[in-house]
Every structure is written in C-alpha cells, then in structure tokens.
Amino acid sequence: MTPRLPHEKKTVSFSREAVNVFFHILTRCNLRCAHCYINPDQHGADTLPLETICRWLEAFSPATRKANLIFLGGEPTLHPDLALAAAHARKIGYDSVTIDTNGYLFNDILDKTTPDTIDYISFSLDGATPETNDAIRGKGSYEACLAGIQKANARGFATSLIYTVSTANLHELAAMPDLAGRLGISRMFIQVLGIRGKSAGDKAAQDMGQVSREQWRENVPAAAMAGADHGIIVTYPKVFLGEDEVFECAGRVADNYFIFPNGRVYRCPLCEDFPLHSLAFENNRLVATPRVNEADLFELDIAEGCVMNRLVQPGNLSWRPDGRPKYRIACCMLKEEVRPGKPDRTSI
Ligand code: SF4
Ligand code: SF4
After folding, report:
1. 308: Cβ below 6 Å to ligand 2?
2. What are phi and psi of 191, to 5 degrees?
3. For 155-198, how does the pLDDT look when each residue is reduced to its tens digit (9 = 90+)?
4. Coiled-coil regions in this chain (predicted)?
5. Contacts of 345 (CB under 8 A, 6+ apart)
6. What's the pLDDT band for 5 if we cut at 50, 70, 90?
C-alpha cells in the first residue's frame, strides 16, 4: 500500500444549498434481509410507473438548484424502467444520480445506462465473509454482490459500498477496508443498524442489536481511517455528540426528502414507520399534510438530542443518577467523512 499524507476528517454540516432526494421507486425485493427497514403497510407495495417517477422528480426543481438523487427500493434494479428514470433525472438537471442495490443488478441495468448518467452504483454488503453477510442478507447474496461490483467496475461505473454495523457483523468491520480496496470501491458508507420496518418484530433482527457507544467509538473511526489508507472516502454517522458539539435536526435545517411509492414523503428517516410524513404527492403535486406530523417533532428541544431517537430507539441512550442523559444523540443524518490524504511521494 502506498504511504499517504494525513487523511482529512470532518463533520459534514447540513446545508440548504442542495436538495437530496431519496426515491423508493418500488418496495419489492428479491432478498429478505434481517434488518430490512421497508414496511409495505406504511410505504405501499406498488411499482411506480415511469410517468409518475418523472413527474415526482420534477417536483424538486432540479434545474434551479443543486440536486442529488438516490434511487432506492426494495431493489431498484427490479424496476424495468430504472435506466429511463435515471436518464430523465439527468435531463431535467439532477447533479448526481446514485443507484443503491443489493448487487443482483436485474433487468440488465448495466447494459441500459452508462457511467455518464450514474455517478455511483452503491452495493450493500454486511460482512467480509459469506458466512456473516449471508446470515443477515440471505444465502448467496455475498457472491452475487461481489460479482455485481466486479461487473460494474469492469463497465467503468464508480462503485461504493454500504455496511450496516450491528452486533452480528461488528467483528468483520475491520476486514472491510481491505476487501473494499481489493474490489476497487471508491466510497464506503458505514451505517448504524435501525430496527425498523417489517424486521422490527422479527426475532432474527432483534438478535442483531445496535452496537454500544464504546463499541462504535472503538471500531468505526478506525475502520474509516483504514478505508482511507486504501484511497477510499469513508462516511459514517456521528451518532454520539461530544459535550461541546451543537445539536441540529436536519428536519429544520436541511433539504432531504424520502419518497415512497404510496406517495408519502418524509423529511426524517426515523419517522418512516409511522404516518408522520409532512408531505405527500397528490395528483403528482407535492403538498403539505395536516398536522400533527414529523415537522411538529422537529421543533422540540430535549436534553437527549434527537427526539425521534428518544422515541423509537432509546436503548442507545443512558442517564446519570439525577436523570440527565450522559450524552446526546445526533441527528441520524449528521455524518463524519474521512478523505484519504494524497500519496506521500517523499517516502517512496
Ligand atoms: S434491506 Fe434492501 S436488499 Fe435487503 S430485503 Fe430490504 S430492500 Fe431488499
Ligand atoms: S433523526 Fe432526529 S434530529 Fe434528525 S431529522 Fe429526524 S428527528 Fe430530526
């Protein structure tokens, strides 16, 4: 491995300068991952027609401001018109288009689109070995994901990797940067497990718990630095705020939209299991929903930091004897980013 100058680590602050559109174009999937957050009762089970996808994409006025689009599912490559939807997004002005996939790459998607249209194909992998990954994501999914990454790289697509950390795979996180480096991955996203969606009541998912604050701090920043050693940009959620760090709710200060096939549009992903969406598509127009909704929660200031975290996953908090929280939980969308330092030519 080529030695590098020091990596740059920073907290990525929220901005209203760009709109980020996370678009679930269907909820159908070929896998049954233990931690899947998709909840058809709340998100719908439809596959959106191309015409509807195009109209909804236009609602965010991508021609007039910086706009980033992430296609999600279910498995978005199961949508037969994904490539046409991506081409339309580019045509109307989206600055970046990403496809998040489990790696099976259905409908010959690599033949139907190009690296000029798609900035990143992002692959979900939850273990450095088939044993660990497949216990979470299903038999054969490790091999399929690696084959998908190799095919995408061979066609010139930039690829990224998403690793959802839980007690079931923390032990393999340290091996991921090396694997990602060998696979030619250029970005890695480490995520925190959220017990939501149809997996929330599932025994397998409950056995997978969130890692503790100590485990997170011991393992995640080190893995990010190791990824940067391989020339990979690594992003991970901040999760735990330090004493002097400011809490901000992205629902108040950022422009993020999480769209589902039933027309619900959320500003906060932790609200997605509840009918708390603050916006909805009606007749292809984006309209505000009646209160009470998630926007009312964004306004609440509590000692524990994120209100929704306090409500839906209080297990990651702990309190002092006097009832005050020992630390605050950051907005789930606040990220740390580690960028690799340039190769150090002086030491070669
Ligand atoms: S987590 Fe993603 S790949 Fe896994 S079952 Fe859910 S939608 Fe499919
Ligand atoms: S995760 Fe918490 S802090 Fe972030 S948008 Fe949702 S409610 Fe606000």
Report:
1. yes
2. -120, 160
3. 999 999 999 999 999 999 999 999 999 999 999 999 998 766 55
4. none
5. none
6. confident
Asked whether 73 lines ligand 1 (CB < 6 A), one says yes
CA of 297 to the centre of ligand 2 (A): 8
The candidate with the shortest Cα–Cα distance to 221, out of 173, 266, 258, is 173
Q: Which of 60, 59, 53, 62 is nearest to 92 (CA)?
A: 62
Which residue's C-alpha comes closest to atom 7 of ligand 1?
Answer: 74
Least Cα distance to 257 among 12, 53, 63, 67 occurs for 67
Q: Atom 7, ligand 2: which residue's CA is nearest? A: 308
Classify 70 as helix, strand or coil: strand
pLDDT of residue 180: 98
Residue 308 near residue 297, CB atoms below 8 Å = yes
Q: What is the CB-side half-sphere exposure of residue 121 using CA atoms within 13 A?
A: 31
The finding on whether 298 has its CB within 6 A of some atom of ligand 2 is: yes
- pLDDT tens profile 306-335: 999 999 989 889 999 999 999 999 999 999
Residues in CB range of 212: below 8 A, 6 or more apart: none
- The domain locations on the chain are 8-347
pLDDT in tens, 250-279: 999 999 999 999 999 999 999 999 999 999
Contacts of 86 (CB under 8 A, 6+ apart): 71, 97, 99, 113, 117, 118
Q: How far is the CA of 324 from the centre of ligand 1 (A)?
A: 37
According to DSSP, the β-strands at 256-259 and 66-72 are unpaired
To the question of pTM greater than 0.85 for the whole model, the response is yes
The Cα 137–Cα 196 span in angstroms is: 16
Q: What is the pLDDT of residues 193-212, one digit of tens each?
A: 876 655 555 655 566 888 99
Q: Which CATH class for the 8-347 domain?
A: alpha beta
State whether the beta carbon of 126 lies less than 6 angstroms from ligand 1.
no
